[in-house]
Hints:
Layout: H1 7-11, H2 20-23, H3 31-39, E1 42-48, E2 54-60, E3 67-70, E4 73-77, H4 86-93, E5 96-102, E6 109-119, H5 122-127, E7 138-149, H6 152-156, H7 174-181, H8 188-202
Antiparallel strand pairs: 1-2, 1-5, 3-4, 4-7, 5-6, 6-7
Helix pairs in contact: 7-8
Amino acid sequence: xxxxxxxxxxxxxxxxxxxxxxxxxxxxxxxxxxxxxxxxxxxxxxxxxxxxxxxxxxxxxxxxxxxxxxxxxxxxxxxxxxxxxxxxxxxxxxxxxxxxxxxxxxxxxxxxxxxxxxxxxxxxxxxxxxxxxxxxxxxxxxxxxxxxxxxxxxxxxxxxxxxxxxxxxxxxxxxxxxxxxxxxxxxxxxxxxxxxxxxxxxxxxxxx
Length: 208
């Protein structure tokens, strides 16, 4: 299998970026960025451990669930999840972090890169409450670069077009996947009901 091993080899295939892709990058959170983040209901958090092994974790909430603390800092509340703490543990070993904000119906995304900290300050936690749930820990991101990402990927994937979504009737359901991988002794219906109960109970709770 042929591979690319140097930047020169890579640039022999792709031209250098110019104009908009470079000019749009900036080092602080602008008013436009604040507006985008205030309407975002979903953000992907990318981190890596000390060996460079990567992880991407989704976070969601009501519009504005991510708080802009100032022009250089954004804060993401940690609500109830699976307690694996992959992103948190990564940040303790490697503080690099990347965020991808999404607004339903908008093809463009907002990328924020910088360094991350795990904050337990009571005032910050209170400022990041979502639907009355005060997080125990907040991801505080010290912003280094911000820029809008073009919408080609979301358009290619028809993310916001239900009429173009794939037919999933021929794939196993998530409860079935869970049963086959983790609990083969349980019925799929039992797992489905348990998942729904957990979602309803913990959706807006802080982690326990």
